[in-house]
Write a structure and sequence with these properties.
This protein is an alpha+beta fold and 186 residues long. It has helices at residues 63-75, 128-131, 163-177, and strands at residues 17-28, 31-39, 50-51, 54-56, 83-87, 91-93, 98-107, 120-127, 137-144, 147-155, 160-162. The protein starts with 16 loop residues before the first strand and ends in a 9-residue tail after the last helix.
Length: 186
């Protein structure tokens, strides 16, 4: 995928908590699949939301190291099985005051992973074609403390992906297939 590089590594607001997520793609039986998790209802922030494995950087860690460590801790993904591809553009979340760098990676096939911490209720391998089906994606405009903002949603059969994860998926799908109006799964 062309365009997998971060334009800048510095947060656009003071007090940001540096974080990384791992957007893992696998070659599934019917095309590319992406690894997602559903966060536990016991979490303080973003409870019950679908997300990529990830979390805060430890002192001295790179975004890639943090993303791999978090994926290993959360779902048992062995870093030795992963090929790092690049980064998507970072984004900020005002709710958790995070500066998130999405790290894109590849594994040859969807691996049998499961939640290994109390943070994860469910592990999902979602075919990209499910994210590009007609009626799956929608966009709303919300008034927030920082002005009007586009909020993306992916309505899957049994989960709704929205917020920062949906923004990252939108970016990933746009790189892979083009803008939503012209997008078709391959």
């Amino acid at each position: 995928m062309a365009g997998l590089d971060v334009s800048h590594d510095e947060p656009d607001f003071d007090g940001a908590k540096h974080s990384a997520v791992l957007a893992v793609l696998a070659d599934g039986p019917h095309g590319a699949e992406v690894l997602l998790t559903r966060r536990s209802m016991d979490m303080t922030n973003h409870r019950g939301e679908v997300s990529f494995p990830g979390g805060r950087l430890d002192p001295g860690e790179t975004y890639e190291q943090a993303a791999l460590r978090e994926a290993h801790e959360e779902v048992g993904l062995d870093p030795a099985d992963v090929t790092l591809v690049g980064r998507l553009h970072p984004l900020s979340t005002w709710v958790s005051k995070s500066w998130i760098v999405p790290v894109v990676a590849h594994v040859p096939q969807p691996l049998p992973l499961q939640g290994r911490t109390s943070e994860v209720d469910r592990v999902l391998w979602v075919p990209l074609h499910d994210l590009t089906r007609p009626g799956t994606f929608r966009e709303e405009h919300w008034h927030t403390a920082v002005g009007e903002r586009a909020i993306y949603f992916f309505e899957l059969d049994d989960e709704t992906v929205w917020g920062a994860t949906a923004r990252m998926l939108h970016q990933l799908l746009t790189l892979a297939y083009g803008p939503p109006a012209t997008r078709t799964a391959r």
